[in-house]
């Protein structure tokens, strides 16, 4: 069994209101120097060896990410 991580982030050209809210909050708590924050999602999947890279990309693109507004990457971390 392998651990697979799928990271999903808003595309660069998409407004990220949650990230902007974090940037504003940083100023309120006295932290400066952070110019931008982008908030995304992380999914961890424990998969059997029979699940192919193509299957993993299909899971990410069809189920975990809205590919119109989000990008994703699939990282196989190895045996669990």
UniProtKB/TrEMBL annotation:
It is found in: Cytoplasm. It comes from the Bacteria. It catalyses: N(2)-formyl-N(1)-(5-phospho-beta-D-ribosyl)glycinamide + L-glutamine + ATP + H2O = 2-formamido-N(1)-(5-O-phospho-beta-D-ribosyl)acetamidine + L-glutamate + ADP + phosphate + H(+). It holds the Pfam family PurS. Keywords: ATP-binding, Cytoplasm, Ligase, Nucleotide-binding, Purine biosynthesis. GO terms for molecular function: ATP binding; phosphoribosylformylglycinamidine synthase activity. GO terms for cellular component: cytoplasm. Gene3D superfamilies: Phosphoribosylformylglycinamidine synthase subunit PurS (3.30.1280.10). One of its GO terms (biological process) is 'de novo' IMP biosynthetic process. Its EC number is 6.3.5.3. Pathway: Purine metabolism; IMP biosynthesis via de novo pathway; 5-amino-1-(5-phospho-D-ribosyl)imidazole from N(2)-formyl-N(1)-(5-phospho-D-ribosyl)glycinamide: step 1/2. InterPro entries: PurS, PurS-like_sf. Part of the FGAM synthase complex composed of 1 PurL, 1 PurQ and 2 PurS subunits. Part of the phosphoribosylformylglycinamidine synthase complex involved in the purines biosynthetic pathway. Catalyzes the ATP-dependent conversion of formylglycinamide ribonucleotide (FGAR) and glutamine to yield formylglycinamidine ribonucleotide (FGAM) and glutamate. The FGAM synthase complex is composed of three subunits. PurQ produces an ammonia molecule by converting glutamine to glutamate. PurL transfers the ammonia molecule to FGAR to form FGAM in an ATP-dependent manner. HAMAP family: PurS. Belongs to the PurS family. This is Phosphoribosylformylglycinamidine synthase subunit PurS. It comes from Corynebacterium falsenii. The gene is purS.
